[in-house]
Design a protein that fits this description.
The protein is mainly α. 42% of the residues lie in helices and 9% in strands. A two-stranded antiparallel sheet has the order 1-2. It has a two-stranded antiparallel sheet with strand order 3-4. The chain is globular and about 65 Å long.
Length: 220
Amino acid sequence: MVKIERTPVPPASLAIESRKAHGSYCEKDVMERLQKDFHDKCYICELKPLTDVEVEHLHPHHNRKIKERVFDWNNLFYACPHCNSVKAAAKYDDKIIDCCTVDPEVLLRQSFLDGEVIVRPIQENAEESIQMTADLIQSCFAKSNTGIRTIQCAARVDALARTMNTLYKTLEQFKAHRESVKYRCALRAMLKREYAFAAFARDYVRSHAKDYPELQEYLS
């Protein structure tokens, strides 16, 4: 999970649809704006690109019982069905940080070590929303309570592994050719927030600052 810069002006259809008995919060202008703002990736697991997309409500509306949440532009997030399903657990209700207002990278370590996803708060005794966000992200890569979720999680771990292996190889090439513009540009692209699984790539480079001091500027 990385910081997202949401377009401040809500799509026009939200105001129109909110006046209807069964209005939609998934009109074309909403989906196009979410896709662009969220870089066409799930805000939780960072899988990209998404072929199956759902609009996720950060704060649940409980079957439209809390109507003001249904069409609130700042409550709509771009997610994959898998992560949306995992987040539907009641324990996460109103306990996930808003990555459009705070930077998850200053609150969480999002690591990939020996093929395992490890997400945890940076500070001990972190507030509940930070702990629950870490739990949610990790669960989206490791949930195994059903056969379908096991397969979905494995697919995300495999995709993350491929991304990280590309990062590791490019870093090795950069080590051998420090003056290479080619490798520096490639790494700069991989460390942008819009890249797939950017939080994990950025965490790795940040945690190896002594090895790659010249790359730290790309993490701002």
